Amino acid sequence: MNKKISIIFQLGSMITLIAIVVFFSISMLCYILILIHVLNFNYLRNSSNRHEFRLCVQAAGLLIAFLLLFIYSTGQFIINRASDLPLLFTWRLFNPLVTGFLSWVQPWMCLALNTEVRQNVLRILFCRRKNLFVSR
Length: 136
Description:
This protein is an all-alpha fold. It has one domain. The chain has 5 helices and no strands. α2 packs antiparallel against α4 (95-113). It is flat, with a radius of gyration of 21 Å. It comes from Trichostrongylus colubriformis (Black scour worm). This is Serpentine receptor class gamma.
């Protein structure tokens, strides 16, 4: 009975691994095609196109963060299956760092790539008296 559960667990893990790799690969392929299109056709001359490109860079940053989490989780799974407890406990020491990194990826990407958000945050931090929200 225990062997049957182990086989089902391994099969489920393989299906999950395959699904994640396939969807991640499709997403990265789409972003590469967008980047090639942008670089080949001088797409960034229009300001609205530059904003769209910055959003694509933000999404690419999230995909890279997802890749790092995937590598970390896969490493933890492999170490757990190998029953190497000292290495597993050492590996799990990085769990708060990985979790903290993932919870801050989107805000840092917004601050780095969105001029309006960055200006408003700086105004709040430095207590400037100018209007924070300017209507267009």
